[in-house]
Design brief:
Elements: E1 3-4, E2 24-27, E3 32-36, E4 39-44, H1 46-60, H2 62-71, H3 80-88, H4 105-113, H5 119-133, H6 143-151, H7 160-177, H8 185-195
Helix pairs in contact: 1-2, 3-5, 5-7, 7-8
Length: 196
């Protein structure tokens, strides 16, 4: 089942033009296209609708969004690599002409910085942070430039322990990408924390 993508002025679910007349369909690959006197109207496929709803849920409460997307088969929520791949992904949204994640950068920062309530949760979030940072290429990039580029992906939470957890994973990956620059990952961690 498809639903029409809502625009800013849309407040109804029926597929009709502005005068209330039903639109005629012309199916395309993967989604439907309705034609009206104002031009074609693209409909979302069920998969696009699930992702959009999951992103909305994530932007309200990240764990609920991840759970929703996993139950609808978008990714395996027990795999930190799959979750990180989704969190880093970009897509085109209706009315936009550039790739965007659609995810709230603030909520993304809180989700990545979470510690978890059990040892298993803590291990998952640590693996998730590592998988997330490894999606960035820091080879031959100065630490301040790499940190600045990485920080554009999310908003850093204000709590010192959360910042420390995020910067620890960043420093490990940056040092692994540039092993000859600093003596060890701890030096990179201290330097990154100082830059912040």
């Amino acid at each position: 089942k498809n639903r029409r993508t809502r625009g800013a002025a849309d407040s109804f679910d029926a597929v009709m033009d502005i005068n209330g007349s039903p639109l005629t369909t012309t199916p395309t690959a993967g989604s439907e296209l309705f034609s009206s006197e104002f031009g074609p109207v693209q409909l979302e496929t069920e998969a696009e609708l699930v992702v959009r709803r999951g992103i909305t849920k994530f932007n309200v409460k990240p764990k609920d969004g991840i759970r929703y997307l996993a139950t609808h088969g978008v990714f395996d929520a027990t795999s930190p690599t799959e979750v990180a791949t989704f969190l880093c992904s970009r897509r085109i949204f209706k009315g936009r002409n550039e790739l965007q994640s659609g995810l709230s950068k603030k909520q993304l920062g809180h989700y990545l910085g979470a510690k978890g309530e059990s040892l298993a949760d803590e291990a998952f979030y640590t693996a998730l942070r590592r998988a997330f940072v490894r999606r960035s290429n820091f080879v031959s990039v100065e630490i301040d430039e790499a940190l600045r580029a990485w920080m554009t992906m999310f908003v850093l939470p204000g709590e010192a322990q959360v910042i420390d957890r995020l910067l620890q994973c960043f420093a490990e990956w940056w040092h692994e990408s540039n092993p000859d620059v600093l003596y060890n990952a701890d030096s990179a961690h201290i330097l990154a924390f100082g830059i912040m």
